[in-house]
Amino acid sequence: VGGLENVVTPPYDIISEEQQKQYYEKHPNNVIRLEYGAEYETDSESDNRYTRAAAFLRTWIDDGILKFEDKECLYLYEQQFSFLGQELTYRGFVTLTQLEEFSKGIILPHEETLSKAKTDRFNLMEATHANFSQIYCLYMDESGDIRSMMEQITKKPADISFTAENDILQNVWIIRDDDMIASIQKKFADKQLFIADGHHRYETALNFRNKMREENPGWKEDDLFNYVMMMLVDMDDPGLVVFPTHRLVNHVKIDEVMAISLLKDDFDIDKIIVDTKPSMLSEAIAKDLVALKEKKGFAVYFGGEYYYRLSLHDASVMDQYLPEKSSAYRNLDVTILHTLVLDKIYGINTEDLKNQKNLTYTRDPLEAIEAVQNGTQQCAFLLNATKVREIKDVSLAGEKMPQKSTYFYPKLITGIVMNKF
């Protein structure tokens, strides 16, 4: 296939239709055909993106394009990237991890999911019996023992090394030594895992496991459908970067004047005049958001040369609205936005959020501002990123954040390691 950069992609859920076409054209063996195949008007029950993915997978295995390891391995996966002028690295182990119900408290979610995405992923798993991408999970390494193991492994040159999009260096070490594998397994034996990215795929894997168990009454613990491929990353890895996901509101009856009037009940509001240039607005808002980190607040843009900075009068107001929730959940910026603004003022409730009614998302502040300026969106709410420790605290409280509360960067590359079962 030439270089691996020709045949890998980012995760399916951030690939646009145009990018999908580009990956198809990039190489005939690009993993896009497996993970996120094209749909056609002529698709039928017997010929569709899922059946085609299964056919490509069989052919590529038969032709030796995809090869199985000779023995069971673990993988250490590392990404090196630039962020805000800094050179950062983060690492994790790619493993098969036993699926557990959330109620057991071993593997914990932090975000709500959408049923449409789960149906799509289930259909793909049912057709292919494979994981093409890893579920991204965090763990706590208080002793630093796992970090030390990683340092030991990475002293040797990587087995796989290539540069993917955005000049992000991808390194993979294949761990074949049985003693090292056993040591790593032992260190993770009693770890809680927090799902950072891949909630839909995890719930899909659980549903598929349950279906397979029903169909196979004599199932055994080591049947591969009881496991799912994961990337396990230290929660305190200095290379972890979380972006905010901004909210764009559309097709609502509340205009700017009315919204600002209603927002005054709960927020201190400052009107900041900047410029109509999206880049200047974005830069000014970004600086303001840094200052808002210790308070509870965000920015809102309705168009023009100005935006509003909103900071919560009194955090205890959230106790009245969500008395049944933990303080970790109540104090999230995204919870405050959803409760006191989207629901209370715009009437966008939990059901609307699930159906993505009146609301869209972007992690790009420039895109948010431009969407308001060109009239496709009425207003944009721009937020600070959720902190990794906030994710842990909400998960431990047994709660889930609103959808699209986090965006981990860089995303794991799809297609380097796959799991066929």
Write up what this structure looks like.
By secondary structure, this protein is of the alpha+beta class. The chain has 15 helices and 18 strands. The strands form 4 sheets. An 8-stranded mixed sheet has the order 3-8-5-9-2-1-7-6, with helices on both faces. A 6-stranded antiparallel sheet has the order 12-14-13-16-11-15, with helices on both faces. Strands 4-18 form a two-stranded antiparallel ribbon. The chain is globular. The two termini are 24 Å apart. The relative contact order is 0.16. The model has no long low-confidence stretch (mean pLDDT 95).
State which percent range the strand residues make up. 15-25%
**Which stretches are low in confidence, meaning pLDDT under 50 for 5 or more residues running?**
none
Number of helices in the DSSP assignment: 15
**Into which percent range does the helicity of residues fall?**
25-40%
Count of β-strands: 18
Neighbour order of strands in the largest sheet = 3-8-5-9-2-1-7-6
Q: How large is the radius of gyration?
A: 23 Å
Distance from first to last alpha carbon:
24 Å
Described by strand count, sense and barrel closure, the largest sheet is: 8 strands, mixed
Structural class: alpha+beta
Structural domains: how many: 2
**Globular, elongated, flat, extended or rod-shaped: what is the shape?**
globular
Average pLDDT confidence is: 95
